[in-house]
Amino acid sequence: MNRPDSIRHRLIQSPQVTTGPLIGSRKVHSAPEGNPHVQVPLREIALSNGETFKVYDPSGPYTDDNVKIDVKRGLDPVRSEWIAARGGVESYEGRAIKPEDNGGVGDKHLAEAFKVTRAPLRGLPGKPVTQLELARAGIVTDEMVYIAHRENIGRQHAADEAQARLDDGESFGAAVPDFVTPEFVRDEVARGRAIIPANINHPESEPMIIGRNFLTKINANIGNSAVTSSVEEEVEKMVWAIRWGADTVMDLSTGRNIHTTREWIIRNSPVPIGTVPIYQALEKVDGDPVKLDWEVYKDTLIEQCEQGVDYFTIHAGVRLGYIHLTADRITGIVSRGGSIMAKWCLSRHKESFLYERFGDICDIMRKYDVSFSLGDGLRPGSIADANDRAQFAELETLGELTKIAWDKGCQVMIEGPGHVPMHKIKVNVEKQLKECGEAPFYTLGPLVTDIAPAYDHITSAIGAGMIGWFGTAMLCYVTPKEHLGLPDRNDVKDGVMAYKIAAHAADLAKGHPAAQARDDAISTARFEFRWEDQFNLSLDPDTARQFHDATLPKEAHKLAHFCSMCGPKFCSMEITQQVRDYAAKLNDAGGIGNLTDAERQKGMDEMSEKFREMGSEVYVDQNDPPRR
Amino acid sequence: MNRPDSIRHRLIQSPQVTTGPLIGSRKVHSAPEGNPHVQVPLREIALSNGETFKVYDPSGPYTDDNVKIDVKRGLDPVRSEWIAARGGVESYEGRAIKPEDNGGVGDKHLAEAFKVTRAPLRGLPGKPVTQLELARAGIVTDEMVYIAHRENIGRQHAADEAQARLDDGESFGAAVPDFVTPEFVRDEVARGRAIIPANINHPESEPMIIGRNFLTKINANIGNSAVTSSVEEEVEKMVWAIRWGADTVMDLSTGRNIHTTREWIIRNSPVPIGTVPIYQALEKVDGDPVKLDWEVYKDTLIEQCEQGVDYFTIHAGVRLGYIHLTADRITGIVSRGGSIMAKWCLSRHKESFLYERFGDICDIMRKYDVSFSLGDGLRPGSIADANDRAQFAELETLGELTKIAWDKGCQVMIEGPGHVPMHKIKVNVEKQLKECGEAPFYTLGPLVTDIAPAYDHITSAIGAGMIGWFGTAMLCYVTPKEHLGLPDRNDVKDGVMAYKIAAHAADLAKGHPAAQARDDAISTARFEFRWEDQFNLSLDPDTARQFHDATLPKEAHKLAHFCSMCGPKFCSMEITQQVRDYAAKLNDAGGIGNLTDAERQKGMDEMSEKFREMGSEVYVDQNDPPRR
């Protein structure tokens, strides 16, 4: 059973992308009733007791054994027909690629271009093109049908206890429904309380939704592209992140080949891709913020809109008048985009062109249905700076911009901090919901202390779990390398794992009707000593199995009624099973029963026997006393 | 600067104990005014700007370059004179060591006994011996003086902002004082709201306190001792855990040589040692719970009291009548001690002898000042079982037992869960404080989800941070191997790190007057590009430095005004410094200043120059574009 996985792990060492299902899982598809053309992917985990368990699966075709992956061809454009069928868009000859799009890189370092090209689409004047405009027009898009079915995973399974779950949780005003209908998705989008990041030029994306009445999502940042790295290596970073559960990926690439790298990533990405356009714009002006202007920024927006980027981080809330508010901070401005715009404003003594041109930016993004991720350029970078005037002044401006973007028909989410101590987290969500009309919140952590560089995936998972519970719709991961250096592939996985934990913990606490089903499934497997099921139901079957096998390697132990922590005689779960059997008899007898010693001793004897067969050897291997 | 550390790391590979200070730190001692005999150890971190920063330091003499460590001799009995001076105790010929104390191990596997022996002490009838009895008598013990000074670290430094901090935090009823006086320590102990685990037969321990009006503490579990492992290896596990910040250590050893192993650990431990006596008692009856009785348990308590164990986990709240309440749980009883007692009760159809003999247990523990850690044998082992009737019924009984122990003069803390979703955590603290008269709470996590075996140090750090904030006094760590196998030394460090983060985050959120000083120090170092200071002020200087050096290895980069995440042109912190300088001029000028381009450009030019010198090469090494 380990074989296929170890093979995959060797592949991972090469620049090829990681393919194949997780151990014990297979990709299945499910279509909502009456919509056979909407094929929603799920990951089905096979259990040793014959049951199966389905989980939400953002990993795309890469984990589907029935799909042949060819990164040079890109993924199938699953949404193309839907977009065409809706109409209201036109195909046109896109902006020509210029040398500066790739940082003016010479032939020597020029990366191989993505061969399969498609003429870009854009919305026609007066016609609804964004999911927000369509929703307002009362239209239920195929994306909405897809998302409703996707979000409903496990709800049927949990239907009986659904109400109990909901009553049980504390949602702080969120209203997670027992069942998600396409109409509910439409209404949440129309209301601006959820977004569907889905550029019409990224038809390869599998529709997903970000909003506090849906499953809590996580984002993984990749990029920081390399001159010497192959495009496949960049694509692999994205594939690796979604394999472990990233719902969206931000490409923060800079430097040479930035356009080409992004093209390869988007054409091969089944999840929405976000970017920070100011990074590329800065490259086009030799990295000097002072040289930035509207023309180069506008050119960059159109370039990326045509490529299919699904959401843009735009730091339009960093106003000239707010910059001095950061002067007394311990860590000043820690957002790259924020500091770039601050430098621009100060050097020109002018209001931010992103703020002044915000309407024009909306007009461009609307035509392609690129969602806003309004950046918090003044977010706190330390505990001392949390919730200060600079941060909240910008948040108020983001609220003002949200209304403008909505009027223009654009979808909007709001970025949040950062570094915030536990007792100051909740007010961030409350103020964001109030100022921004409940537009989805998208936070980085927050880190609840500054003192643990190299462990900031943990410091931030604490804050992320809490802020997700309070109503944040998407959590942007932080890796162990934060503050120290570039994350490598192991850091990416560590970051994704910490955030899958935080997001699921948030769904549990909010009372999501289906969230606890997975906890119950894995705990039942644990109690019944179904080790393989416990591994396969976990977030990371490979590591769970590896940790177990480190002390009890033998296949036989996958059936053992104990583990190396306690050994057979101490095994509380085994004893509990006897307690349960006993209690059952009690209930039958309606009082203290009268088991014979023989009856009681039976379970232990079986265990001890099993242990004598193999125990000693195992524990000597592990320097562990046979007596345990 | 790396040299001494790398040498230590080689030592770590051998069975020797890890010695020597952390990089950039040295052990210093400080005596409270008028008490030169009370030498409180601190870790002083030297900063590159000439300042120093002191942190609380439970690592003992092992990190003191001026102390020669000899594990065969044990640590100096720093408290012996204090205990003798108080009087009220007698030395006597202790219980003789029996073969069954070491699991009846044959000569072949018998571990080397600890050579230095001391006749045990016990309290005299009618004389105050426990810190609780002494506190009630109005006596301020040397331990209390020591603890007050130890807890005050950083408070003078933070004095100016102390009030601000307190107002700033949310303590949920805790009352952390601006300054800790010996009288405050005495009153908290007399009130039962804090305990000082300090067996009179463990004079080697450096006094510490557990209570919600003091710094949040963490415990690390070691043990699961090995036939083939040397005693030094067991001692090393303890030394390694306290090196990274464990405040107490529980020895959960079982099997052979259990008595001898514990002796070596206690004689070499500067932190309180806790145990679960039922584990050894079970060994004495061949591992069969059914054979347990009061006599063997009593014999084990006395054995361990004489050795110097500082606190006992006793599952006296697992009553016969509660066991059937676990029958419908998903994971039943997951506490080892709890399941052992449940099996005993069921098999004998009798009330727990721990419950019925509780008064006798108190009388024994009082004589040696062993503190109670009333075990939660019915704690939930899964999200589904959290906060159920079985758990709370036991908690109510623990409250009843707390009053009895207090009446007998014993110090008490209460153990808590376990597996609890975020929204069900707070009520655990509220109910514990109410039922148990504010006796200190000591929780295991809790884990906020069941779905991440191999990452349970993270799932539980989320719950631990929150429950610590709500008022839990000590957090028992969980390692990545939880549910899967035996933790190794890396797991121990990972667990301690995750819990140091949770405990500090809790102190910050409670508004501890000195907690934020360390966050401010490290963030200031970060902002000022004092890389070495950022590493040395962090919880794990070795790993922080290693992560940084992975991308920017050169010594020169320790001075660089950027890191590999953004590179020089994107460095937000550098730009912020310019913003700050600019804002300063603004304030001077009382309006928009008029910096020349030359002025503004200066900082960037310096950076770019520094970057040209070494940047490209670095980034090519790291497959990172020189342009960044």
TrEMBL record, chains A, B:
Question: Would you say which domain of life the source belongs to?
Answer: Bacteria
Q: Which InterPro entries match?
A: ThiC, ThiC-associated_dom, ThiC/Bza_core_dom, ThiC/BzaA/B
Gene3D superfamilies xrefs: 6.10.250.620, Radical SAM ThiC family, central domain
Q: Name one GO molecular function term.
A: phosphomethylpyrimidine synthase activity
Instruction: Please list the residues that bind Zn(2+).
Output: H419, H483
- What does the record's cofactor remark say about binding? Binds 1 [4Fe-4S] cluster per subunit. The cluster is coordinated with 3 cysteines and an exchangeable S-adenosyl-L-methionine.
Q: Does the keyword Phosphoprotein apply?
A: no
Under which main EC class is this enzyme filed? Answer: lyase
Metal-binding as UniProt keyword? yes
Which residues lie within the region annotated Disordered? Answer: 17-37
Q: Name one Pfam family in it.
A: ThiC_Rad_SAM
Q: What is the E.C. number?
A: 4.1.99.17
Q: Which GO terms describe its cellular component?
A: cytosol
Catalytic activity as recorded in UniProt? 5-amino-1-(5-phospho-beta-D-ribosyl)imidazole + S-adenosyl-L-methionine = 4-amino-2-methyl-5-(phosphooxymethyl)pyrimidine + CO + 5'-deoxyadenosine + formate + L-methionine + 3 H(+)
Keywords of the record: 4Fe-4S, Iron, Iron-sulfur, Lyase, Metal-binding, S-adenosyl-L-methionine, Thiamine biosynthesis, Zinc
Q: Which residues form the ThiC-associated domain?
A: 22-90
Q: Which pathway does the protein contribute to?
A: Cofactor biosynthesis; thiamine diphosphate biosynthesis
Single Gene Ontology BP term? Answer: thiamine biosynthetic process
Cofactor requirement: [4Fe-4S] cluster
Q: Give the binding site residues for [4Fe-4S] cluster.
A: C563, C566, C571
Could you say which protein family the record assigns here? Belongs to the ThiC family.
Q: What does this protein do?
A: Catalyzes the synthesis of the hydroxymethylpyrimidine phosphate (HMP-P) moiety of thiamine from aminoimidazole ribotide (AIR) in a radical S-adenosyl-L-methionine (SAM)-dependent reaction.
Query: What NCBIfam families would the database entry show?
Result: PRK09284.1, PRK13352.1, thiC
Q: How does it assemble?
A: Homodimer.
Q: What is this protein called?
A: Phosphomethylpyrimidine synthase
What's the gene? thiC
